[in-house]
Every structure is written in C-alpha cells, then in structure tokens.
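User: Here's a structure from my thesis project, written as structure tokens. My advisor, Dr. K., wants to see whether a designed sequence matches the one we expressed. Can you design one independently, without my sequence as a hint?
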C-alpha cells in the first residue's frame, strides 16, 4: 500500500499500489504523479501539455555522487619519507550527512623520490577512524571505498608513510586527493 500525507493540505491518501493511481499537484494542478500498474512504473507528467516528464520503475535505485576536493590536498610536496608516521593532515574537514549515504570513496595520486618507501593516503573520520585508504610506493588515480562511517562526524584526508625509505632525505608528494560521498535512494 501507499500512504501520502500532505499536512499543509490536510490530505492523507492510502491506496493499493497494485491499482492505477493518479495525484495532481502544483499551484494549478498542472502536474500529475501516477502509478501505471501495467508497467509497474511511477510517471510524472505535465497535464497541460499532455507530456510525460519522467518515469521510474518501482524500487528503482537513484544514485548520485558528491565530490569534495579539499583545497589543501593538492600538490603537497616534500613530505618526509625517511621515517614512518603521519606526514600531512588536511585542515579541511567535511561533515558526513548519513541519510542515504552508502559509501565514501577516496581517489588519490602520489609520487615518491625513492622506490623503497610506502605511502598511505586515507580518508579519516573523527569518530570512525580510517574509512578508506590506498597505499603503495606511488599511485595514480587510485580508488578505495569504505562503508563504515558515522552520521555527523567530520572526515578529512591524511598522508602517512608506513614503510620508511632507507635513504635520508627521501620524500613523498601528494598530487591530489578527492573524497566522494556516494548516495543511493530507492
């Protein structure tokens, strides 16, 4: 069954979605939402111009991605790679809106001055800790995703050296890092 509650109009509609259904809306009832039981589809149409604007199959997943490119996560050069530990923490933190959020994706590129070091780029939550990370001596457009996060927490990018180079003065450079929030709604 379907229940639509429009408190500002004091309308509650309960219907069996196995039957055809049509609801007009808009200031002049120009638009209509209708359920086409034959095709198991919801359709929004312009009633004045007799045109379907779009349709969705029932239980269709609608998704979108919101990319965030922290300004300080671009061309961070000369980070010491001759010792381990966190070498950079972004000062730009983004608040997680957990509603419909399915995963957080990290995309990053980095280089190293010497082949024996290992750098990890990670997206970190203030509550969750590391959400997603990529690592290696170098990386080009590497991606990782995480599904563990807390609504309302702040997330940011860190760069750490997990294996130090044996060469004194070795460095690693963060070319860029982007955090992507991937949302899905049914």
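Assistant: Designed independently from the structure alone:
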């Amino acid at each position: 069954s379907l229940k639509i509650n429009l408190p500002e109009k004091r309308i509650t509609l309960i219907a069996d979605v196995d039957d055809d259904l049509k609801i007009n809306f808009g200031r002049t009832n120009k638009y209509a939402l209708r359920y086409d039981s034959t095709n198991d589809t919801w359709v929004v149409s312009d009633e004045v111009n007799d045109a379907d604007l779009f349709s969705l199959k029932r239980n269709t997943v609608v998704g979108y991605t919101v990319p965030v490119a922290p300004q300080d996560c671009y061309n961070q050069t000369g980070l010491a790679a001759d010792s381990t530990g966190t070498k950079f923490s972004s000062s730009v933190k983004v608040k997680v809106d957990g509603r419909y959020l399915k995963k957080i994706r990290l995309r990053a590129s980095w280089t190293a001055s010497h082949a024996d070091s290992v750098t990890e780029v990670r997206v970190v939550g203030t509550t969750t800790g590391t959400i997603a990370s990529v690592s290696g001596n170098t990386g080009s457009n590497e991606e990782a995703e995480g599904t563990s996060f807390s609504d309302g927490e702040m997330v940011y990018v860190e760069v750490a050296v997990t294996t130090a180079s044996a060469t004194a003065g070795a460095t690693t450079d963060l070319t860029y890092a982007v955090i992507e929030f991937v949302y899905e709604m049914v």
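When you compare it with your expressed construct, this may help: Residues 2-58 form one domain.
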